[in-house]
Amino acid sequence: MSKILVVDDAAFVRMQYKKSLLDGGYDVIEASNGNEALEKYRDTKPDGVLLDINMPEKDGIVTLQEIIDIDPKARVAMVTCVGSQSVILIALQSGAKDFIMKPKEKDGLIDAVEKLLA
After folding, report:
1. Domain boundaries along the sequence of the chain
2. Cα(84)–Cα(61) distance, rounded to whole angstroms?
3. For residue range 33-69, what is the model confidence (pLDDT) as tens digits?
4. What is the pTM for the complete model shown?
5. Max intra-chain CA distance, the chain
6. What digits encode the pLDDT tens for the residues 2-37?
7. Alpha-carbon span 95 to 66, nearest angstrom
8. Candidates 3.40.50.150, 3.40.50.2300, 2.60.120.10, 3.40.640.10; CATH matching 3-117
């Protein structure tokens, strides 16, 4: 069973994604901020990460860069409701493998995770 780390400061988003991913047969680890995400990444070595861009304390881009420093082969998809071209470009240049727009329906989320892990 593949492990997915879901990182979002909004508990309802984590809950929604967790339910969808569990229904899709994935094991889910949750983190509410960038620092917690880094700690959980080191501890659990997930197969993929869904990482919110806009978070307090440490944003998703900085968190992404630090995850890539830990594991250059990390599979990270950035998640956001704001699809600015410059933010997408920065995320992809920083090592993100994909970009997911919120909200994501269950089937779309599972498809995005399958693509991320492929």
Report:
1. 3-117
2. 13
3. 999 999 999 999 999 999 999 888 899 999 999 999 9
4. 0.93
5. 35
6. 999 999 999 999 999 999 999 999 999 999 999 999
7. 10
8. 3.40.50.2300
